[in-house]
Specification:
Layout: E1 8-12, H1 17-28, E2 32-37, H2 40-54, E3 58-62, H3 68-82, E4 87-90, H4 105-133, E5 136-141, H5 153-173, E6 178-185, H6 191-200, H7 204-213, H8 223-233, E7 245-248
Helix pairs in contact: 1-2, 1-8, 3-4, 4-5, 6-7
């Protein structure tokens, strides 16, 4: 038996990167997975690949996580088509990096909206079936940037906000059998960090090498490193753990 047999997991921003790795990991443990992304076609493609790899049911859903009606419809679709909802991973995110004097209102609103408002709307909708069944796991994605990072005032604020959001939901939902935790990745080799390299005028390989050199374990992270931590928080082994933020960064924040 797998650790997630009989459960349904929804992963936002699940078409690629950390989200896709998490969906694959939970599906490999037996979960029926729903992948939510802005583009339904991309979500569906990843869902189809996971279903073929693992033999478990997978669903691709398109929605803007900032749209309350779209989020409510997405949750209802997951519950109807996959038979419930037990695990929610709030992973959807973007960066709009710039120094404060160059940062626009749109840069701020986009990042705070997708990260924080998105997590709020998804969690608010998901808690309904979770509270009714007296069981649930919500895992939010924070970041080491929550501790402050040059050129990321918006992203840092969103990611530290995610930690406060996590602790508050843990207090509110704990009596109903729902745990809420966060994972804070360090440098992870993804399309997002590759885009950062290009913005800095260097190659992704150069950025990864510099980041590895500054990390005690002397390598950068992979999406599977984060998926492993999320899988723990989603498991029965973590049933007495809630309100916590786990930094998965190779020791970079020591």
């Amino acid at each position: 038996m797998g650790a997630q047999d009989g459960r349904v997991a929804l992963i936002t921003g699940g078409a690629r990167g950390i989200g896709a790795a998490t969906a694959r990991r939970l599906a490999a443990e037996g979960a029926r997975v729903a992948i939510l992304d802005l583009e339904e076609q991309a979500a569906a493609a990843t869902a189809e690949a996971i279903a073929a790899e693992t033999g478990t049911a997978a669903l691709g859903v398109g929605a803007d996580v900032r749209d309350a009606d779209a989020v409510e419809a997405a949750i209802q679709r997951v519950v109807t088509e996959l038979g419930g909802l037990h695990v929610l991973v709030n992973n959807a995110g973007v960066t709009r990096d710039n120094l404060l004097f160059k940062l626009t209102e749109d840069d701020w609103d986009t990042v705070l909206g997708i990260h924080l408002k998105g997590a709020f709307l998804l969690s608010r909708a998901a808690q309904k079936p979770m509270v009714e069944q007296r069981y649930g796991r919500i895992i939010n994605l924070s970041s080491t940037s929550a501790l402050g990072n040059r050129g990321q005032a918006n992203y840092s604020a969103a990611k530290m906000g995610m930690q406060g959001f996590t602790r508050t939901l843990a207090i509110e939902l704990g009596p109903f059998g729902v745990t809420v935790n966060a994972v804070a990745p360090g440098f992870i080799a993804t399309d997002m960090t590759d885009a950062t390299a290009h913005r800095l005028g260097i190659t992704p390989e150069q950025l990864r090498a510099a980041s590895a050199e500054a990390t005690p374990v002397r390598r950068v992270g992979a999406p599977d490193d984060i998926a492993n931590a999320i899988a723990f928080f989603a498991s029965e082994a973590a049933s007495f753990v809630t309100g916590q933020t786990l930094y998965v960064d190779g020791g970079a924040t020591l």
